[in-house]
Write a structure and sequence with these properties.
single chain; mainly alpha; about 75% helix; disordered C terminus
Length: about 290
């Protein structure tokens, strides 16, 4: 009886204050750096370099955002536009290629299909640095260095294998009978894909698009290797310009980091439900 009461007490503690304290600690750990950067972006220069350290801004200012966006030394608006273009093209092309490839793998059986899928997944185990030398050689030979194409094609090497693997599992979860019924009613293969399969696979396709955009948006290694001209830098590489040899522009750097999170945050707000559902379905069925 005593053991049962002890168990009930432990369960109440774990289900109450201890649980909430643990969750609060995890949330603080996850959001703490972002909150610190956000508060720093609103401080004046005097507050940023104050001694002792000043945690909260006393005079809220958006000057750091204006300086970061309009600076001629670090053309942040150009970096932002470059990232938006590279990430958007990567997202659209990755989604289109992945949908067609995954549909073919899911619907047309052939020998070695499982091995083929495992090879796709295995590419995610290797670091991107392994691709630097061969890609750099290829882009140099093709005259693609300092171009958007070099960044977009390089991003494909990481986004397409994973999104194909994820979408194959999603297409496998859709009953073939629905597609066959549409074909009996007169739809061709592509008609059934467009009218029946794609609407049902919308959550998985949305997850694919988000993954491709976020991966491309935050990519740094390819950006600093395949571009050397300032006007071709993407946002992640451009932020490095704010870290000088003798001084770090903390205010502009913090504002730049906050601005760089806006497109990704907007995507997550509108599509996060599809992202979670799509990733889960792909992981279970793949």
């Amino acid at each position: 009886m005593s053991g049962r009461r002890s168990g009930d007490l432990a369960e109440r503690l774990l289900g109450g204050p201890v649980l909430w304290a643990g969750l609060a600690l995890l949330v603080a750990f996850a959001l703490g750096p972002f909150l610190w950067v956000f508060l720093s972006s609103l401080k004046t220069r005097q507050e940023l370099y104050a001694t002792p350290l000043q945690y909260l801004p006393r005079q809220l200012t958006i000057g750091n955002y204006v300086d970061a966006w309009t600076s001629k030394l670090t053309p942040f608006s150009r970096f932002f536009a470059n990232s938006l273009w590279v990430s958007s093209v990567t997202m659209v092309a990755t989604t289109a290629i992945s949908v067609l490839a995954a549909y073919a793998l899911a619907r047309f059986g052939f020998g070695g299909r499982r091995v083929f899928l495992l090879l796709f997944l295995a590419t995610q185990m290797f670091p991107a640095v392994l691709l630097i030398a061969p890609l750099l050689s290829q882009w140099h030979a093709l005259g693609l260095l300092d171009t958007y194409q070099a960044l977009i094609y390089s991003n494909f090497s990481f986004t397409v294998p994973f999104t194909v693997w994820m979408l194959v599992g999603y297409f496998d979860s859709i009953p073939r009978e629905l597609e066959e019924s549409a074909m009996i009613d007169g739809c061709g293969r592509f008609g059934a894909l467009y009218r029946v399969i794609l609407p049902l696979a919308a959550p998985g396709i949305a997850a694919t698009a988000i993954f491709a955009f976020v991966s491309s948006w935050s990519e740094l290694l390819f950006a600093i290797t395949f571009t050397s001209q300032t006007e071709m830098r993407t946002l992640s590489a451009g932020l490095l310009f704010m870290v000088g040899q003798y001084e770090i522009q903390w205010g502009q750097l913090s504002a730049g980091v906050i601005i760089s999170t806006v497109p990704v945050a907007v995507l997550f707000v509108f599509l996060q439900r599809h992202l979670i559902h799509g990733l889960t379905a792909g992981a279970l069925k793949g």
